[in-house]
Amino acid sequence: MNLHIVATQGIGLLLLLIGCLLAVFEVFKGKDTIVPSTVAILGWFVCLFVYIVMLFGMNNAKADEFLIVNVAAHHWNNDAKFNQKNYGLGIENVFDCDGCDGDLMGEIGFYKNSLNAQSGYALLGYTPLHLGVLRVGVIGGAVTGYPLMPVVPAAGVMVSLRYEKVLANIIMTPNVEKYGVNGFAALQVGYQF
Hints:
- It is built from two helices and eight strands.
- By secondary structure, the protein is α+β, with helices and mostly antiparallel strands.
- α1 packs antiparallel against α2.
C-alpha cells in the first residue's frame, strides 16, 4: 500500500476528529441548534468512511497532498444573511494515475458553514478541461452540519489553479430552491506538503 495514502488517511482522520470536537464544543456552548450532536457526529464519520473508501480505491496512484484552508463563500442569495466567512481546514489529494493526468482529486476536511455550524466534508473532483494552469470540472460528495439531513449530498463546478506547490479552488453550486439549497461560490487555498 502507498505510504502517502496511509499518511493522508491518518491526517484526514485527525482533521475530522478536530472538526467533530469543535461541533461537540458548540453543542456544549449552546450554539448548535441546527443538528443534534449525535446525528452530527454520525455524519462526520460517514464523511470519513466515504473518503477512506475513495483513497483505498486509488491506492496504486501517486498523489500530491495539499493542506487546504477554506477561506470564504459568497452566496447568490444573501437575503438570509448567511455566514460568508467559512473558515476551515482540509486535505486534498491530487491523483496522478494512468490516464488521469492529475485530473482526479479527493478532499476531506471541516469548516464553519453558512449557518454558523461546524461541517465536515468528503469530496471527489474531476477536472478534465485544462486552460494553462487552470483546471475546470465537477466536484461532488457528502457534507454534514445542515438541517436537511445528517449527511447531505453535494455537487458543483470547480475551477482549480495549480502552480508548483500552490493551489486555489473556487467551488460553485447553483440555487436549488426545491431542496432549500442556496447556491454559492467558495474559495479555498492550499499548499503542497
